[in-house]
Amino acid sequence: MSDATERWKERYEMVVGLEVHVHLKTATKIFCRCSTDFGAAPNVNTCPICLALPGALPVLNEKAVELASRAALALGCTLNKVSVFARKNYFYPDLPKGYQISQFDQPLASNGKLVIDLGGVHSAVDQFVALNRLGLTNGQSYPLDFFGAERHRTQSNFRIQTNIQLQPVQPPSVTSAFD
Ligand SMILES: [Zn+2]
What we know:
Layout: H1 3-11, E1 22-23, H2 62-74, E2 78-79, E3 86-89, E4 99-102, E5 109-116, E6 127-138, E7 142-143, E8 156-157, E9 164-169
This protein binds zinc ion.
């Protein structure tokens, strides 16, 4: 290990929290009836809701709530009796409609953990990753040529813009590369 690395380790402690996105296996998107078919051509399977056209109102996919609830229970989370979605307004190349509907302070479920079987390699006991909230959100579109030759121009694929994502969020608790 270099001297610079040693000095860095003396001055700083690594503390990392992770937000992980998991796609739920549903036939339709989270807020409309468009297909989630993977591999379809760009910008098909869209509707006024996906495209955020004026007056379009999202309707929550019941199957998404069911699958997310099952995942939450498997992770030892508490299902919350009140769960709230919020509209987060921002523009980004992968979100040209200008907002995302997600959960933050009142998510679907809270306080679970993912147990990791280390087989006694690092520790005599299983390690676990704490999860402080688990919410639902819509996925973004993705840039088609963001890394292509025409870097001055980005085209978005709206097809996946409202696919369903499960968002387990871990508190800042990772303190080493092994963790
Ligand atoms: Zn749609």
